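FAQ

Q: What does a record look like?
A: Structure on top, sequence underneath. For example:
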């Protein structure tokens, strides 16, 4: 394969991956708010799925964000019913609410279909995500 052809294929693949990431970002921020809120909620969901719940300081550490910022954002996310606090001994852990889980479940099929199309090479300019 010619170097020019390889570069065109690479550029097309990069464009498709970036388009998919942008679509996922749009879905996430539509569900959970701005980029920092989406990052926090996503991290809490992953921790919950893996059976490793986060408290404020662990979350701040893994995201490399000051505890004071995490505290403010988490308070807002709790008020918006996206996260909830769960006491365990002297620690307070964060977990996604039922509302957050349901919102993720509703968009998960679109996300999975997009990734499937990407890996098959079926992804067009809109990344296979329905509007």
């Amino acid at each position: 394969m010619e170097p020019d052809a390889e570069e065109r294929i690479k550029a097309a693949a990069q464009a498709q991956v970036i388009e998919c990431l942008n679509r996922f970002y749009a879905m996430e921020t539509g569900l959970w708010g701005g980029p920092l809120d989406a990052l926090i909620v996503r991290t809490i969901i992953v921790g919950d799925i893996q059976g490793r719940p986060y408290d404020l300081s662990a979350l701040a550490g893994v995201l490399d964000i000051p505890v004071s910022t995490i505290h403010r954002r988490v308070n807002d996310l709790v008020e918006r019913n996206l996260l909830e606090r769960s006491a365990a001994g002297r620690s307070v852990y964060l977990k996604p609410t039922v509302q957050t889980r349901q919102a993720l479940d509703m968009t998960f099929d679109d996300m999975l279909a997009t990734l499937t199309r990407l890996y098959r090479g079926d992804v067009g300019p809109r990344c296979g995500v329905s509007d």
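Q: Is there anything notable about this one?
A: The beta strands are 83-88, 91-96.
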